[in-house]
Amino acid sequence: MKELFLIKLGEMVLKGQNRAAFDALLLKTIRRRLYPLGEFDVRYAQSTVYVIPKDESCDMDKAQEKLEKIFGIVAFTRAAAAEKELSSICDTATEYLATALSAAKSFKVESKRADKSFPLTSLELSREVGAAILRKFHHLKVDVHHPDLTVRAEVRDFGAYLHTDALPGAGGMPSGTGGKAAVLISGGIDSPVAAWMMARRGVELVPIHFASPPYTSERAEQKVVELLEKVAAYCGPMKMRTVSITHIQEEILQKCPEELFTVIMRRFMVRLSNKIAQDEDCGALITGESLGQVASQTMQAIRCTDAVAELPVFRPLIGTDKAEIVALAHRIGTYEISIEPYEDCCTVFTPRHPRTKPPVFVAEKAEQALEIDALVAEALETVKITPIRIK
Ligand code: ATP
Ligand code: MG
After folding, report:
1. Which of 154, 195, 238, 336 could join 388 in a cystine, given CB atoms 3.0 to 4.6 angstroms apart?
2. Among positive and negative, which fits the CA dihedral 83, 87, 92, 93?
3. Max CA distance (Å), the chain
4. How confident is the model at residue 71 (pLDDT cuts 50, 70, 90)?
């Protein structure tokens, strides 16, 4: 019996003229991700991507794990292929789904017949497959309204397929179809989730991490690498930029009012990100801010940081609650890493009483004490590139 995957695509199907390019990118991503697991035939037909292992050595369980993390796939099924004749369809259903049928108390069969030359109608096929199942599994009852198990039989161009309910895919759009953006990534819970959300919209990510050596450690930076590896499992490899902002922080601490420390530092983060983003042809910046979460995330503070942004700043978490962000972090697998207690550049010099509603002109006035361009240029000299791989 031959197993395969049948993949349903998400919003891509709405993309009109760009559709072909989107399909091609998705097929390329699927082939690339499955490449280490054996030889698979990956092809598109009748609104479905077929992923067919070429021989027994293909690892189907690992392939399933990979497919669950490919953006652009809304749902997929692991199915068994049968000949397009009734006896083969019935035998395959009872053999392939034996474990699930034994565990269930009730079932129903739903059939689809895309190949109209098949001699039975969908209804007739469902009835025949149902009867074959009842002949082998005497404990089962048919329940068309609330069955424990739905057996699905599909007759398509290349063959007939048997499976149960579809598995959820990662959704979104194929990586690379939504442009490129720089994501400001800390070791916290929020920014990896923000990165993942924008990657799910097809955005290619250029992660930027600000460190404050020697106040922040190598290990703290390694934590960010591990977080990004979780995101890379979905969106593919990336190149992280690490920038030292120690000198900038020391200058702000010495020359600006303490209550403005955070907002001025964040304005520097944005200025540095502007440059890196533009060098990398990015169309936007991404942050993990959520309105009102901390002093630097009030509407006024956000206005202050946006005032120096030269690109749109995307904040996918702006309207989310922490509990929702945490739930997503669990789903992506970043939560356990994020809560490891390593120092972050933001926490090293945190003021005791940050100003929560700093007007832009107040930040601008305080910054007059600083050599902004020189500090930005000096920090950019420290940029280090770390490749992020799919683990
Ligand atoms: P997170 O959980 O992502 O760290 P946070 O709730 O701790 O977020 P802040 O520390 O105010 O919030 O940071 C807000 C956003 O600024 C982060 O989501 C991230 O996009 C960016 N940011 C904060 N610290 C850094 C850093 N060290 N390097 C790069 N970006 C950062
Ligand atoms: Mg943080």
Report:
1. 238
2. positive
3. 86
4. very high
pLDDT for 346 beyond 70: no
Pick the ligand that lies closest to the CA of residue 188: 1
Q: Residue type at 180?
A: K
Å from CA of 256 to ligand 2 middle: 22
The residue among 168, 188, 223 that closes a domain is 168
User: Contact, 41 vs 112, CB < 8 A?
Assistant: no
Do both 186 and 152 map to the same domain?
no
252: domain CATH number?
Answer: 3.40.50.620
Q: What is the pTM of this model?
A: 0.92
pLDDT at 350 over 90: no
Distance (angstroms) between ligand 2 centre and the Cα of 151 equals 47
Give 361's pLDDT tier (boundaries 50, 70, 90): very high
Strand (E) or helix (H) holding 167? strand 167-168
Cα 120–chain centre separation: 42
Whether residue 349 is predicted with pLDDT greater than 80 in this model: the reply is: no
User: Is residue 77, in this structure, part of any structural domain at all?
Assistant: yes
Bridge pairing between strands 167-168 and 73-82 = antiparallel
The response to whether residue 296 sits with its C-beta less than 6 Å from ligand 1 reads: yes
Per-residue model confidence as pLDDT tens digits over 196-245? 999 999 999 999 999 999 999 999 999 999 999 999 999 999 999 999 99
Residue 102 exposed, middle or buried by CB count within 10 Å (0-12, 13-18, 19+): exposed
Asked if 89 and 48 sit in the same domain, the reply is yes
253 and 345 belong to one structural domain = yes
Domains of the chain: total: 2
